[in-house]
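Write out the bound-state structure for zinc ion.
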Amino acid sequence: MPAKNPMPEVATSSSDDSARQVLRCPDCLGPVLGSTALECSSCATSYAIEAGIPVLIGRASQLNTSEVETQDHVSDQYNGVRYKRSTSVKYHEDTMEQLLELAPPRGMVLDDGCGTGAFLEFVRRRRTQVERYVGIDVSRGMLSHAQRRLKAAGGDPLLVQADACRLPFAENTFDVVYARGMLHHLPDPARGMQEIRRVLKPGGVAVVLDPNETLLSRLPRYLARRTDHFDDDHKSFRASELERLVKDALTLGETRFYGYVAYPLLGFPDLIDFDRLGISRLAGGLMRLDRIFGVLPGIRRLGWGVMMSARK
Ligand SMILES: C[S@@+](CC[C@H](N)C(=O)[O-])C[C@H]1O[C@@H](n2cnc3c(N)ncnc32)[C@H](O)[C@@H]1O
Ligand SMILES: [Zn+2]
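---
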């Protein structure tokens, strides 16, 4: 896969090498060894390390090229607008806070589909009981932004180019897995959930967040899908469908709905920019209103998004 944002070559250090001990061959789960490239000691497949990021996508992965291209394409908008504009950053950090309320980070933490690294950066800033942060994403463009963002923030999470349907980790590796807005991009979300289950330690917790399809969200989502932000794999689950996927893999914990008025007005300036109307001045109030809607019986299920925690 060609690099969209080529980065200067990053020398590997011994700390990179020790972080990479957690990595496995995505095809056979054998250990992968090496410092300038990785070779599977079981099936002898070799995997490149590009600009410091191991590319652990095996031959068995069935990736949708157009989804990967779409994500490479939107990564600049994510990084340059969605996670830079102060109002939308504030909005997204409020939803990130809710993910942490569902599962505080601890031990080994995986951000599955980490995008431009905004959530990893947020988690790093907030808590300290973490042994190691790991982020995977299939998009080179997303990972290049994540690498820059996290270096600038002084962190050293392990970033890996990988397929969420074939995670390059041994079973029972992680204490907490977050999948924020990722599952609905997969051609086979059930497989993505089974992979989360596999890499979680017994007693480990996963938090997934995805769009929630309701009668109200259907039309605007249909119109948004016609933009170049979305590939055909992009799905909208009803909350009950997402709960089914989660329950087939793990023991469901709490389900929370989020995103009512503030979500479309503040969250996606790369798609719909309401800032011109002076909406940002109302951000605090709109976000408080959204938190209230999120607990009102009847109304809460109309949220644009849903998040749930689950335990292995
Ligand atoms: C809506 S974005 C969310 C990104 C990030 N989690 C966030 O909250 O900003 C979806 C992410 O899933 C990634 N993705 C899509 N298909 C994937 C796959 N098969 N394996 C890993 N990541 C994938 C995309 O590259 C993209 O970064
Ligand atoms: Zn192998």
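---
The longest helix spans residues 65-82.
The chain has ten helices and eleven strands.
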